[in-house]
Design brief:
By secondary structure, the chain is mainly beta. It has 1 helix and 6 strands, in the order αββββββ.
Length: 94
Amino acid sequence: MTDDDGYGHLLPLVQALAAAGNRLLLDPQSTAAFRPSQGGYYCSMSGPLRFDAIRDLPRRAEVHLDETNDNIFCRHCWTGIYGARYRPSFIHKS
């Protein structure tokens, strides 16, 4: 994993999640951890994110841990890390 697109500060979080048991789901076309989307880059992890493994790691103020929606999002580089339970916050269950 590299910092080619400005998300390098998130790599320690991805590595800690992987060390805690979350498997990184690679992009099948490029085998890259992070892939582009309309809103920025993202990566996906297997299972719910292990927030206990990353809660105390240093991170920028713009990096938000959202345990309710199973994701981590950086408002600096518009990059997300999504767990298996991730649901965009604008989708509501009825």
